[in-house]
TrEMBL record:
Residues 304-348 are annotated as: Disordered. This is Citrate transporter-like domain-containing protein. The keyword Thylakoid does not apply. It is a multi-pass membrane protein.
Length: 559
């Protein structure tokens, strides 16, 4: 029999291991050990085994493989959806026929919430942050309200489904609640929460969103024209690319040079910028065709073309240099259909075939993803459904899967493995049980006061220890307490935990990984960089989190 001093020593060592894990998970760049969250979770797990708080066999058993499989499957599906331009279409939807800054802010809230519910909040924030920054800068709008809208709405929207965020994955697997039951229980609260959050954003930033309209005399600022090199320089920007961006850099300058001006254009100054002009008259097109034929006969790389520009006071001539390939690009873009050679027809057929293959591939990706969602709604095993969809997508790609699999966030999967072991070891110390026994009599969900106290405990722990460890620590205890009331109360307790632990991420900048992703992506964005500070997020996050959490609890508890 193990004596008490030894048990106390194990408890102390277990607390030390969990404390190290907590510090590195919440503050991954601490000066004394800046190793990051993943290494911190592995260090905590290793210390739990070395301190004999948990045995090696129990450590392996603590890793929840269904959750790891579900995470892996959803990551692969999200990667294929990004390759299939799903997020580019979502980005274009934000600015399509926008009616001003307030309409744009409302769209960001709705689109990011729905996308997060289907594709996880972290993925949504990664791919949409730079695009939202670009749209805000182009319209001369302050980026802060739109970044806050993306981060907070992504967190709220991800609460609606088990695949929306990691803590929901844990809850769905541990509780056995089906995808459909989870959706029915939280989706109404999510919709009301997103609309409430959007209303708070509009009230909070109303003057900032109206200042440009006032300065422009009642006309909203229109979108600026962004240079193609700015658009294509982003690692991923869901924006429509210009045809010029596919050419060689040497060709781009000449393509954008004025080729000829129409006779109907009035006289302008000599310093006028002519980069957006192109061939307009058929006579000029025929002249370009003749020049191209002459260049192809002589195999010369450079040709000097003289264009006569008639103005009101007389005629003047300009010379500019173009290569044969540049003239050919101009004819392809601007000339009407003309008899083509066999080689050109073959190239056109090849391009059409490639476009058709891309269309079929994208359609297959969307259909497989839709099939995965239908299977989840039918109540099939969530982990194996996601893994099956991922493997089908990899098989239909007909290429080496290494390039795709390299984009999977294996560091996150390893972080979860280490966290499972660390939290299980901390549970074995008995300290979480002791603390819960002090709170449990006052936090039963059969009363309004109990629900309020439970929500406060979850809210604080989610920001102190992060939301996933909070779910791992409280999940079974909250469910067991509610199960003593009724079976329906147990399911309701899991849904309350899912809702509050997710919305709690909006309280501070450190409360959610999605917040940190938006902050880092915005700070590192080229040409449109913006620093979202901790205090600017806190000033909005506190009132929004309290109001949205309270309204959502009323809806979830009434389910």
């Amino acid at each position: 029999m193990i004596n008490r001093p030894f048990l106390r020593t194990l408890n102390v060592l277990g607390c030390v291991a969990f404390g190290i894990f907590w510090v590195l998970a919440v503050f991954p760049t601490v000066p004394f050990m800046p190793v990051g969250r993943t290494a911190g979770s592995l260090l905590g797990a290793m210390l739990m085994v070395l301190f004999r708080v948990i045995s090696p066999e129990d450590a392996y058993a603590a890793i929840d493989l269904p959750i790891i499989g579900l995470l892996f499957g959803t990551m692969v599906v999200s990667i294929f959806l990004e390759r299939a331009d799903m997020f580019k279409y979502l980005g274009n939807l934000l600015s399509w026929k926008s009616r001003g800054s307030k309409d744009l802010l409302f769209r960001v809230c709705i689109v990011s919430a729905i996308a997060s519910a289907l594709f996880t909040n972290d993925t949504c924030c990664v791919v949409l942050t730079e695009f939202i920054l670009k749209v805000a800068r182009q319209n001369n709008l302050p980026p802060q309200p739109f970044l806050l809208a993306l981060a907070t709405s992504s967190n709220i929207g991800s609460a609606a489904t088990p695949i929306g965020n990691p803590q929901n994955l844990v809850i769905a697997v541990e509780s056995g609640i089906s995808f459909g039951q989870f959706l029915l229980g939280v989706f109404p609260a999510m919709i009301v929460g997103v609309l409430t959050n959007a209303a708070i954003l509009l009230c909070y930033f109303w003057k900032y969103l109206s200042v440009e309209k006032d300065q422009e005399g009642g006309q909203p600022a229109g979108p600026e024209v962004v240079a193609d090199d700015e658009v294509t320089s982003h690692r991923f920007t869901p924006a429509r690319m210009s045809h010029v961006s596919s050419l060689n850099p040497d060709d781009m300058d000449c393509i954008s040079e004025p080729i000829i001006r129409s006779n109907s254009v009035r006289s302008t100054s000599a310093n006028e910028n002519l980069r957006s002009r192109s061939v307009n008259s058929e006579a000029d097109i025929q002249l370009a065709i003749k020049s191209l034929r002459a260049s192809s006969m002589s195999h010369e790389m450079v040709e000097v073309s003289t264009v006569t520009d008639r103005r009101d006071e007389g005629a003047s001539s300009r010379k500019f240099t173009r290569t044969a390939s540049q003239q050919r690009s101009v004819i392809i873009e601007d000339s009407p259909p003309s008899p083509a050679s066999n080689g050109d027809k073959e190239k056109e057929d090849e391009v059409a075939e490639k476009r058709w293959r891309v269309f079929v591939w994208k359609t297959a990706v969307y259909l497989i993803t839709l099939g995965m969602l239908i299977a989840l709604l039918m109540g099939l095993n969530m982990s194996w459904t996601a893994i099956t969809a991922a493997l089908v997508l990899l098989a239909l790609d007909f290429t080496d899967a290494q390039a795709c699999l390299e984009k999977v966030s294996y560091s996150l999967l390893i972080f979860f493995c280490g966290m499972f072991i660390t939290v299980d070891g901390f549970n074995k110390t008995g300290i979480p049980n002791t603390l819960w026994e002090l709170v449990e009599p006052y936090s039963r969900i059969d009363s309004a006061k109990g629900v309020a106290l439970l929500a406060v405990v979850i809210l604080i722990l989610s920001n102190v220890a992060s939301n996933v460890p909070t779910v791992l620590l409280l999940g079974t205890r909250v469910a067991a307490s509610a199960a003593a009331i009724s079976h329906d109360s147990e399911r309701k307790a899991w849904l309350i935990l899912a809702w509050v632990s997710t919305v709690a991420g909006n309280l501070t900048l450190l409360g959610s990984a999605a917040n940190l992703i938006v902050c880092e992506q915005a700070r590192r964005a080229q040409f449109f960089g913006y620093n979202l500070s901790f205090w600017s997020h806190l000033r909005f996050g506190v009132p929004s989190t309290i109001v949205v959490t309270a309204i959502g609890l009323l809806i979830v508890t009434s389910y």
